[in-house]
What we know:
heterodimer; A: 285 residues; 2 domains; four-stranded mixed beta sheet; 8 helices; 11 strands; 25% strand; B: 185 residues; alpha/beta; fumarase; 7 strands; globular; EC 4.2.1.32 (chain A); iron-sulfur (chain A)
Amino acid sequence: MKIINVNEIIEAVEKMCIEANYDLGNDVMLSFQRALKSETSPSGREVLERLIENASIAHEERVPMCQDTGMTIIFVEVGQDLHIEGGMLTDALNEGVRRGYKKGYLRKSVVNDPFERVNTEDNTPAIIHYDFVSGDELHITVAPKGAGSENMGALKMCKPSDGLEGVMQFVVDTVERAGGNPCPPIIVGVGVGGIMEKASYLAKKALLREVGVHNKEERLAKIEEKLLERINKLGIGPQGYGGTNTALAVNLEVYPTHIAMLPVAVNINCHAARHKEIILKGREY
Amino acid sequence: MTEVVRIETPLTHEKAAQLKSGDNVLLSGVIYTGRDAAHKKMVEALARGEELPFNVKDQIIFFVGPTPPKPGQVIGSAGPTTSYRMDAYSPTLIERGLTGMIGKGLRSAEVVDAMKRYGAVYFGAIGGLGALLAKRIVAAEVIAYPELGPEAVRRLEVKDFPIMVIIDQEGNNLYEIGKAKYRTI
């Protein structure tokens, strides 16, 4: 049994909100470089060069790479032998967001209600997904998500008879419909199975995987490769100006489902694929 | 890449008519910002018979909601937001003389029709280029709806602001042309 104070959690979240928005991951930077080598469209190459330059400016000058610093999505794995003292975990995570978005000069993009639409001024509430795991650690991932790409997501309750081809076609159609809207080159998260919200959750969670890392199961990794190939034949290209790099990666996650169901969710991430994680270990109780 | 065309605002109909889909443009001069909430307010103001916060004739609106500036910065990160959310409002502003819009992503047939009828150009700025684009903005001032925070209407002065002509006055669309050229499926 270990114990952790909420203040440590608040500070960690504050820092991750800022760093996620200032520092693009190495995996994405490397995938820009790879795309630059393979891209056949001159405008596409110019877009990629500017994106690399933009990420460098953000990192060096400590400013957000994109003005849409997102709604803050937080994935938390709580070790069941960990005790949290000093307050509620959910409150601590939101306080970290509140402080990070203020201190980091990040844009406050959350409105209080879908109909009233009054800005909450501190980017809270965050969207928090909890999972309980064995052990005594707290694993927190902060993933700010912009609206341009989030708005292009889609869900379809396919029929089992639609099969793998039906699922793949829905993914490709969703990317095609999105065109240049979600700021390609994109990362495509795909969740298949479970029920409606489980598929959506898996599609989002798939986006946390590093670009270039395939699903551990070979049959699923092959589907990811096939989907990426089909998507990059669409011609949309960087920013939709035409080209051969529409997506940098397709990440697929699956889950058991019902005999009568085949849910498919597609969650698109723009090229500013932001996520930072930390494992807090707590102290002896 | 096509050669760079330098444009100074205001964007008169004569200048706008010269621009062709796919042109790489460096824009300098005064432009205005506006996104979802500001567009809604502007169009509602017109419906009530009120004036707009600025005269849109021969002007360009940049769809953006910047991050708060850090001390010493003119403006925070400032890249384009997705344009289709302004589709419901853009034709009304184009009819009043607006000649340019800067955003990213697809536009509706109604917007393209209005652009062709009244003579307006749709430019794309690179989405997610907020840190770089902010450096090409040399002055920024909130001129309307300050209560909207990042969505307030700002008057910006830009210098060599990099944009691309997506849809020209004839309705030629780079998204369609570019995609068709590289499509192999």
